[in-house]
Amino acid sequence: MALATSSVSEDSVQLRIFKIIVIGDSNVGKTCLTFRFCGGGFPGSSEATIGVDFREKTVEIDGEKIKVQVWDTAGQERFRHSLVEHYYRNVHGVVFVYDVTKLSSFHNLRTWLQECEGHAVPALVPRVLVGNKCDLLEQVEVPSGLALNFAKAHKMVLFETSAKDPSQAKNVEKIFMSLACQLKAQKSLPYRGSNRPHSSNEREVAGVAKNICPC
């Protein structure tokens, strides 16, 4: 399957849109992963995302250009309570992120899975598991085997990577492209002509959401 990416605006072309949400504890690197995928780099700030952050990237899969919308949410409940229903609306794919150097972030994945279920995310929506900060080799608290068993139990593919390490950029891209390829293969999603969020409510959420730290 041929994969390619493009940063050229496709507003004049009707593109299929895939909405992918990224969830996990605060400070596991959710926004850094989305920033690496959509912007190609790593942000220099380390402050926290407040509310919801929204990025997008046009990719090409087997000759079809597709717009991937990546939604990143704050891990702290006080920042996301009023926005969470909009966040889960019309979701096509889910990325669960934990910090390999923080065992508690891995254990809390069960809470994030429960939140998905609580907001009626269909079982057919593809999910992937990402262990971030693998560049911190001497600080790892979550063994790969433990994460792999969890991923298998919940029918997810496991990626271990580092949003910070430039040499891992292709691995970060694989996370989101693997979801995009699965979604394209389903051939059941509607086409939309806009590169903005899917509804007036989601446009409002994106406008209210403020990200002062892409990390």
Automatic annotation (TrEMBL):
The keyword Transit peptide does not apply. SMART domains: ARF, RAB, RAN, RAS, RHO. One of its GO terms (cellular component) is Golgi apparatus. It catalyses: GTP + H2O = GDP + phosphate + H(+). CDD domains: Rab33B_Rab33A. Its EC number is 3.6.5.2. Its cofactor is Mg(2+). Keywords: GTP-binding, Hydrolase, Lipoprotein, Membrane, Methylation, Nucleotide-binding, Prenylation. One of its GO terms (biological process) is Rab protein signal transduction. It comes from the Eukaryota. It is a lipid-anchor. Pfam families: Ras. InterPro entries: P-loop_NTPase, Rab33A/B, Small_GTP-bd, Small_GTPase. It is found in: Endomembrane system. GO terms for molecular function: G protein activity; GTP binding; GTPase activity. It is an enzyme of class 3 (hydrolase). Belongs to the small GTPase superfamily. Rab family. This is small monomeric GTPase. It comes from Xenopus tropicalis.
